[in-house]
Write a structure and sequence with these properties.
Chain lengths: 399, 291
């Protein structure tokens, strides 16, 4: 019948058109309609101060988390941490929070939409978004509208440089990674390593830069740098390439979705050297899903799960009681985040945007699950970090 | 050597996926864009069979094959048959299969949630071989064997059996085939069933290979599948096999010799180059469409 050469043109151009249609559909996905603006700022101040502060109206707080998509496992943890904190604050009384959690589907465009929505809904503060690359796109909206933002997991450089309304309680990679590399170098006598990172994500890219700087500082040679995409799942070709330079360790900046198959396949190929990961590795699912392969993975972390400070001990017990599982760092930072917001609100006993912004910037030596917590002049978090190693299926402190 | 094997393993999965794609295209002249959704769905179903049903990995494969076949029949019945009389049946089928793919993925998300899923720990055989200095797991060997068996079996069926003759007749000219007593509707349905069954097995094998099943895994391989069937020659089965292997090897050697950042540029650039030299694809014929 048809001549093939001519015939294939039709399906191809239609395929392109169809693909475009799919993209279009995806981009105008959901976005909850509006329960409209909450209390005007007048009702958002109250009597007393600190623990005795009482505010009549519920304080509206928006949270933009990635509950579906590639970062869903982080978002889910964060949601649990926030819910737990909100429940405990409601129990404590005085100031109550109307916490509205929305899903950005791990899509920065969706994050922008949600920020717009929260700004016009009149929330006092926005928590999130989960990923740094969403933060660099969405935070400017809040900055422009004068709504304070508290990042609870943004660790990429430059997020708080967006403006004076942008804060975070998550330690940057730049704060954690030098300590990780220094400890690992001392422990394993590293001389040359292979660095691998996904170069299509702001978070893993800035992690890579921090690793590169820290390695140089410690005088460790990088014999090869290998990049991949955050959506990749087959790393055998890359790992074989890495194996050929016979490194003392693999240094990897990747999200957990990539980290698990990467670690598994590395061990399958017979790579037995330590694997040093960035913040993305800092997730109990690494051990749950990679099993034996995860042994010997070294991760710097902002939260020491084994810390015995009273806030942390209580948090571990409450979390386990509520969800019947162990919290991870994302849950801890989310929990700490809402608690810090509460501190800031109580400091002036006012929950309008300006007072929260001003009080957040002045937080100093607040006891939290993360340890003694302060906000520095760049609106970044200051608190102790910890270097962990996977041993017998759990994170232990590497010393 | 290790890289060569890496390329062959991943390439054989690309090929198996692409063969399902190209089968429907070659015989029925339709592009079934629900194929990637079948790929993803079967990976999740395969994991559930192992996790809940307690089956071994290999016992799950035939069940997934049947699951894929049923899904293929559903796709044909819902997305293609109602539209077959239309003058723009190509285009309409394409769109309706995308819609169906979207629904399938949404169902998956409802059933399994958004998280990446993996086979339970310990469901993989620990056996490892060393082949000329390269590490190979038993799972990888089985993946390759299953892919090749299915591809050879399909080629045999199309060229040697009565059903295959019917398929080729339909590919040649549906109207003439009908006149000659071929049940075109049945052939169409069977073609979709086989195509989706192959896509389903490819999905599980992929999930076994990287121990990861994600909702987006179909979308990630879709473009590669399209590239493979175009390079292999639209509608050509051996072409899809070779195209898959070429793409797998191109990716691996791009990493090895040029740099990991250039992988997709090199791999797809190479495919582009092949098309410039042979616009009909490696094994695509300029004469009548083959199966």
């Amino acid at each position: 019948m048809h001549n093939q050469g001519r015939d294939m043109r039709v399906p191809l151009s239609t395929a392109a058109a169809a693909a475009a249609a799919v993209l279009l559909l995806a981009s105008c996905g959901s976005g909850d309609g509006g329960d409209s603006g909450a209390a005007a700022s007048g009702e958002l101040s109250g009597e007393g101060s600190g623990d005795s502060c009482t505010i009549e109206a519920e304080v509206p707080i928006g949270a933009v988390l990635s509950l579906t998509g590639a970062a869903a496992s982080y978002g889910e943890s964060q949601q649990r941490g926030l819910d737990l904190a909100a429940a405990q604050l409601a129990e404590k009384g005085g100031v109550t929070y109307d916490l509205r959690i929305e899903d950005d589907q791990t899509d920065p465009r969706q994050g922008i939409t949600l920020f717009d929505q929260f700004v016009s809904d009149g929330v006092s503060l926005i928590i999130g978004p989960t990923l740094s690359n969403a933060a660099v796109q969405a935070d400017p909206i809040a900055q422009e509208a004068g709504v304070p933002v508290l990042g609870i997991s943004n660790t990429a450089a430059g997020v708080t440089e967006i403006g004076d309304y942008v804060f975070r309680n998550s330690l940057t990679e730049q704060a954690v990674i030098p300590q990780t590399i220094a400890t690992a170098t001392e422990e394993y006598g590293l001389q040359d390593v292979v660095v691998m990172y996904s170069n299509d994500d702001a978070f893993t890219e800035s992690g890579y830069e921090a690793f590169a700087a820290a390695l140089e500082e410690q005088g460790v040679t990088v014999s090869e740098t290998i990049t991949f995409s955050k959506a990749d799942t087959d790393f055998r070709a890359l790992l074989t390439q890495a194996q050929q330079s016979d490194p003392d360790a693999l240094v990897v900046s990747a999200l957990i979705e990539a980290a698990i198959p990467l670690v598994t396949q590395a061990r399958e190929l017979g790579i037995d050297v330590p694997i040093i990961g960035g913040n993305g590795f800092n997730n109990p699912r690494l051990m749950a899903d990679a099993g034996q392969a995860a042994e010997g993975v070294v991760v710097g972390a902002a939260w020491n799960s084994a810390s015995d400070n009273p806030e942390n001990a209580a948090f571990l017990a409450d979390f386990a009681a509520e969800y019947d599982s162990q919290p991870d760092q994302f849950a801890a930072q989310a929990y700490a985040g809402l608690m810090l917001v509460d501190q800031a609100v109580r400091a002036n006993c006012a929950a309008d945007r300006e007072s929260i912004k001003q009080a957040l910037g002045e937080l100093e030596n607040v006891p939290t699950v993360l340890g003694e917590f302060s906000i520095d002049e760049n609106r970044d978090a200051v608190h102790p970090a910890v270097v962990q190693i996977v041993q017998n299926g759990t994170f232990a402190v590497l010393e | 050597m290790q890289q060569l094997l890496n390329g062959i393993f991943i390439g054989s999965i690309y090929a198996l996926f692409a063969i399902g794609f190209t089968l429907v295209f070659g015989i029925l002249d339709r592009l079934n864009l629900a194929h990637p959704a079948v790929f993803a769905a079967s990976a999740f179903v395969g994991i559930e069979l192992v996790e809940r049903g307690g089956l071994s990995l290999w016992a799950a494969l035939p069940i997934v094959f049947v699951f894929g076949a049923v899904l293929g029949l559903v796709i044909e019945r819902l997305a293609f048959r109602p539209l077959k009389g239309r003058a723009d049946a190509h285009f309409a089928g394409l769109i309706s299969s995308i819609a169906l793919a979207g629904m399938l993925i949404a169902l998956l998300q409802w059933r399994y949630g958004p998280d990446t899923r993996r086979f339970p720990a310990g469901s993989f055989p620990e056996t490892r071989f060393e082949v000329v200095g390269a590490q190979v797991t038993l799972a990888q060997v089985v993946i390759l064997a299953v892919s090749l068996t299915l591809m050879v079996g399909l080629t045999y069926m199309v060229t040697r059996t009565r059903l295959g003759r019917g398929m080729r007749a339909v590919a040649e000219n549906p109207t003439a085939a009908r006149v000659l007593g071929v049940n075109v509707d049945r052939i169409t349905a069977v073609t979709f069933a086989i195509s989706s069954a192959l896509g389903a097995v490819a999905g599980v094998l992929f999930a076994i290979n990287v121990n990861t099943a994600q909702l987006g895994m179909g979308a990630a391989i879709e473009l590669k599948g399209l590239a493979v069937i175009i390079v292999g020659g639209m509608g050509s089965l051996p072409g899809a096999l070779i195209g898959g292997l070429v793409l797998g090897l191109a990716e691996v050697f791009a990493v090895q010799y040029i740099g990991s950042s250039w992988r997709d540029v090199i791999a797809f650039g190479l495919l582009f180059l092949i098309l410039l030299v042979r616009p009909q694809g490696l094994l695509g014929a300029r004469r009548v469409r083959e199966v």
